[in-house]
Design goal:
Elements lengths: L1 E2 L8 E6 L3 H12 L4 E7 L2 H11 L3 E4 L8 H11 L4 E6 L3 H11 L3 E4 L3 H13 L7 H13 L15 H11 L4 H8 L3 H14 L5 H14 L19
Parallel strand pairs: 2-3, 2-4, 4-5, 5-6
Antiparallel strand pairs: 1-3
């Protein structure tokens, strides 16, 4: 966790919460090269991010979803409860279909896939600063088609769209190879409650065994691990100042 002083009070102050140092560094390079933004702090976990947000009161929070301890969705809910005017943008390796609508409901203003971040992050921040939401053109088109062809129908999403936020959190921790007792301790819930969540998850995902659930969750976690984002030795990837 660290804090960086700003030289310009007119710049929007951005706090980044992500457990991948290379990715945080890449985002910092992009934003600090833009005259409108200054990265004022970084944190590796949701817990540290919440503490730093209280100290710094940034204008914008950029957060990942999957992190050690509480996930980004829980961070969004906690911060919005304390700082409802804070603008939040999610950068994640998870497909938008899995989390975009969840984070918007929780209080975020936009969602960007990490593999599109170097192209889209500044535009996304400009959009949310102007009072708009930011989602990819692909997801916006899908939502429009759903509204046209299935008004009042089932909610758009991936195979996980029927899981509740808590069930998604349990699913994520299963993918991280935590035992039922470890998940219960992490979420401050009883073992029986976690067992109930596991049963509901299996039912909703049409899985028959605990092994099938563990395998699918592990695959999902593996798919969320980012490739290297930007090398600090390659300044050509940083967009020129506007």
């Amino acid at each position: 966790m660290n804090e960086t002083p700003s030289n310009s009070p007119s710049k929007k102050r951005v706090l980044i919460v992500d457990d991948h140092p290379v990715f945080r560094h890449g985002v910092t390079l992009i934003l600090n090269a833009d005259p409108s933004f200054h990265v004022c702090g970084e944190a590796e976990t949701a817990t540290a991010g919440l503490e730093l947000a209280r100290q710094l009161t940034p204008d914008i929070l950029i957060t990942d979803i999957t992190m050690p301890g509480p996930n980004g969705l829980e961070l969004i809910k906690s911060i919005i409860a304390e700082q409802p005017r804070l603008l939040i943008l999610v950068l994640s390796m998870h497909e938008e279909a899995e989390y975009a609508l969840r984070v918007i409901r929780a209080g975020a203003k936009g969602y960007v896939m990490k593999d599109e971040a170097h192209q889209s992050i500044v535009l996304a921040l400009q959009k949310i600063l102007s009072g708009e939401f930011y989602l990819s053109a692909r997801l916006n088109k899908t939502l429009i088609l759903q509204a046209v062809h299935s008004p009042g129908g089932t909610e758009f999403g991936s195979q996980f769209s029927h899981l509740s936020d808590r069930e998604m959190e349990v699913f994520e921790l299963i993918g991280k190879r935590l035992s039922t007792r470890e998940i219960a301790e992490s979420l401050h819930l009883s073992v029986k409650t976690i067992e109930t969540h596991r049963a509901h998850i299996k039912e909703k995902l049409a899985l028959k065994t605990a092994d099938e659930l563990s395998h699918l969750a592990a695959q999902w976690i593996a798919s969320s691990q980012p490739a290297e984002f930007i090398s600090s030795s390659d300044p050509s990837l940083i967009p020129p100042p506007r």
